[in-house]
Amino acid sequence: MACWLFKSEPDVFGFDDLIAKGAAGEQWDGVRNYQARNNMRAMKVGERGFFYHSNVGKEVVGICEVVAEAHPDSTAEDPKWECVDVKAVARLVTPVTLDDAKAEPRLRDMVLVNNSRLSVQPVSDAEWDVILELAGGTRPL
C-alpha cells in the first residue's frame, strides 16, 4: 500500500478538526494543483497518510486514512478537480517538524524536504518508518 502526506493550515482545518469529523471523515477539498490532484487519483481506500500542519507549526502531527477514493471536489466549479475523503486514526507521540525532517539524512529525498509546497504528496515506506521513529510512535485516538 502507498503512503501519503496531506498538508493543511491548522488555523483553517487542523488535525483536531479531522478528528472531530469521526469515522465518516472529511473530503480533502480545495486542492488546485494537478500533481496533488493526480496523487489523490492514485489513492486507494485503506491507504494512510501523515497529516502535516503547514504555515503554523510546520510539522507532521497525525495519521489519517483514505476512506473514499477520488471523486469530484464539491468546492470546485470545474469537474477536473477531484479529492479523496480521509479520517483521522492516530496522533504522533511527538510532532515531527520540517526542520527535524531536513536534519535527518535518511529523509534527504523526501518530497516534503525538497518540495514543501506540494499539498498532497507521496511518502516512501522507508520515509514513513523514519518519521514514525522520530515521532516516538503513535497514540490511537
Automatic annotation (TrEMBL):
Domain of life assignment: Bacteria
Database matches in InterPro entries: 5hmC_binding, EVE_domain, PUA-like_sf, THYN1-like_EVE
One Pfam family named in its UniProt record: EVE
UniProt domain EVE: residue ranges: 3-134
Protein name: Predicted RNA-binding protein, contains PUA-like domain
Organism this protein belongs to: Paracoccus aminovorans
